[in-house]
């Protein structure tokens, strides 16, 4: 078992608990012997539901799911089709566990607002029925050019914003991928682009209602999820608003490298200053 733990640690799947971390639960760890084609192998088992009442799964809200039935598989058959079976070794490494739809969308919206200095009106709408494809971001406004070095970047075309100056009709903002970063905005937006059932003219950031229907991300949902995450991180959620990303991103950029004074005809960036 020790060898398996070391292997998982080397792959980055296991980290040591730091003294200042708040432990949220305990998981039982075991190992089972398995024989396949005359070869005995040992398989580690991580049971997040045990011990009861203190297991990791006891600390989270689980969405009940069920496997597809034989009847479901039969309904997919058509004349001329062939059936195949694929057995994946350590499938969880090649088939990631799906995060909740809302968390994926709001996380991408948060990173977009921070790194692009966007207002909350750029990533969400006051009410779902107030969304307008001519004034709000749609999926077609996002593209992913590939750089010569092989890294990806994301370009977002802003077609309507009160911060667009110097008579510009459109404004394109750009970010370059940061491999390995958990807060890479390029990777977060790439995941948004992979979500199904969203056409090119649909909202860039959207959520699901109780019936699974898609609707634009609203201010209330965006701020509510943000404050929930802030509280989870030990921060005072009342101290943050939807504009905290714009202010925080601008402050971080200023501290890294103050912008030069704008020349004639260039947009005025005098607002780019640290918070008091």
From TrEMBL:
Keywords: DNA recombination, Membrane, Transmembrane, Transmembrane helix
Amino-acid biosynthesis is among the record's keywords: no
Top-level taxonomic group: Eukaryota
Basic and acidic residues bias locations: 265-276
Molecular function terms from GO: DNA binding
Entries under InterPro entries matching the protein: DNA_brk_join_enz, Integrase-like_cat_sf, Phage_Integrase-like_Recomb
GO biological process: DNA integration; DNA recombination
Keyword Membrane in record: yes
TM stretches of this protein: 97-118
Spans annotated as Disordered: 253-276
The name this protein goes by in its record: Tyr recombinase domain-containing protein
Species of origin: Cymbomonas tetramitiformis
Organism lineage string: Eukaryota, Viridiplantae, Chlorophyta, Pyramimonadophyceae, Pyramimonadales
